[in-house]
């Protein structure tokens, strides 16, 4: 920030002196303007000032809506900017015949607007996983998303206009496409945030949240996939193969596939939770300390997992949205087929017994055993990752209690694909 200020001050000084020199040496307005637009040095200075003005506006917007960035946000920003710059350079090579100052300015603006979108996404993710977020943060993020959507729409209409007017392919296709993608992501982030707020208002017991979130992400992925393909074809027909798009296209497709398989797995486990997981008996509740480890509240009724651990049914459901292992002992909560259920019950349902049964069960097929070994390796990796971060994903730290002293939904530190 300090560096930008110093740089901005120097740029402004240099430009002012160039303009002053132009007017004092030419004495009249018109010749001075001719000099300013024809001199190479003046041109570079003006260009530089324009860039500085953009960066300053960006910093200002960031400061107003987001305040100081967290370390993770800065890291992500740096990482993504480099990737984006490389991709935009690829795009620029496609449109090299349209190259102009206006094009350069639009590219710079696009980069800055994109960076704001990444930050918005990251901030919403952070708010969703953080207990007791102050009201001001909510107001800020909502107004930020409205602001971003307005910016997207303005740029989108500006780049669509020449396309509609001239009816021929130009670099405006590129900007229209980029702002369409940005606008749809903003809407998707906003709706996801609305889901989060609704769930919070229902005290974390909105059972359908996972389903709605899935459909939201599915639709947004589908829209993006469609737009990417449309753009790909448009560029291919008019310019040639758009190399910079291949990675994005592949990643959108991949995320779409992972989303579907994650969801299928989640539905499989939660579809008949009542039948799949037996109710805990009064004796079992008394034998344990009758506290649900997920929400840390007392249980009067509970569901029992194969490993023998007990949880509230709604807590278990929201846990399954993110993890498919027992919150206490990390044994996988796979949909039990008949053989394995029998074996787990036979072993007296001790913690971890299901995992062991899965690996060492006599007569289990080679493929299953290999699968379980891989799963165990993953679990161990996850456990060591959790210990490195110094936080247990099973036991929420005391600061996850919000101001009312009520427990909040726990934060997930491990990837869903576990
Ligand atoms: Zn609970
Ligand atoms: Zn367990």
TrEMBL record:
It is found in: Endoplasmic reticulum membrane. One of its GO terms (biological process) is proteasome-mediated ubiquitin-dependent protein catabolic process. One of its GO terms (cellular component) is endoplasmic reticulum membrane. Keywords: Endoplasmic reticulum, Membrane, Metal-binding, Transferase, Transmembrane, Transmembrane helix, Ubl conjugation pathway, Zinc, Zinc-finger. Pfam families: TPR_SYVN1_N (PF25563), zf-RING_2 (PF13639). Residues 292-330 form the RING-type domain. It comes from the Eukaryota. GO terms for molecular function: ubiquitin protein ligase activity; zinc ion binding. Pathway: Protein modification; protein ubiquitination. Belongs to the HRD1 family. This is RING-type E3 ubiquitin transferase. It comes from Aegilops tauschii subsp. strangulata. The lineage of its organism: Eukaryota, Viridiplantae, Streptophyta, Embryophyta, Tracheophyta.
